[in-house]
Design brief:
The chain contains 5 helices and 13 strands. By secondary structure, the protein is an alpha/beta fold. The protein has a single domain, classed as 3-Layer(aba) Sandwich (Rossmann fold), CATH 3.40.50. The strands form 2 sheets. Strands 1-5-6-13-12-7-8-10-9-11 form a 10-stranded mixed β-sheet, covered by helices on one side. Strands 2-4-3 form a 3-stranded antiparallel β-sheet, with no helix packed on it. Strand 3 and strand 4 form a beta hairpin. The radius of gyration is 18 Å and the shape is globular. The N terminus and C terminus are likely disordered.
Length: 251
Amino acid sequence: MRRTNDRHPVHRHDHRRVGLVRRMRGADSVRDGVAMKPYYEHAGITIYHGDCREILPTVTADVLVTDPPYGIALDTDNSRFSGGTKGNMAKRGIGVAAGAPIVGDSDPFDPSFLLQYGDHQVIWGWNHYPDKLPRGTCLVWLKRYDEAFGSFLSDAETAWMSKGHGVYCRRDLSNSSITNERVHPTQKPVSLMAWCLSFFPSANSVLDPFMGSGTTLVAAKNLGRRAIGIEIEERYCEIAAKRLSQEVLAL
């Protein structure tokens, strides 16, 4: 097995052909006899750049936690909330995605294929595909204080969890304090993803097949857990690698 220096992150863009197909947790994944090199690998955290449907069968983890495309064709141009005035448009800006669509978000999304990966799963966006997932626990992220309910866009977001049948809420406004520092249009707070992981204290490894900017991986790293992330857009792989390489994870 290839060894890497644990003191230095490894970035990979190439792949090599091997004769023996192997499955390794947090190491080279193998697809059709081709070993895919991780885009990033350091201190138990691994990132793969590619389509998760192709990579998922080659990796394993104890729990899957992800925020996939919702199939709602989200308009990422934030200037539409400016009221049309140039001053407000300049202040708000167009957003980190520069108005570009989210890959895979233009068509209805069915997350049911994710249920075969990990012993348990947490999948955000449950309200967008309630008929695609079985009965489970509902996690609710309250994004504002009660007094502001109904004032602007959604008050909360929901996630489906395979463990249990209850409803659990967390109020987390930490995204508001990093509005100008967010690096992905649907970026979740690190504290929120850490909350998701708290339901699985014995899970030593985490898998996020729609990694985005790597928030789930940052939360896993902060908790001392191994993690694998998969992302189809290389720019977000690079952003996630930079976040994970920081000594102090501020985002």
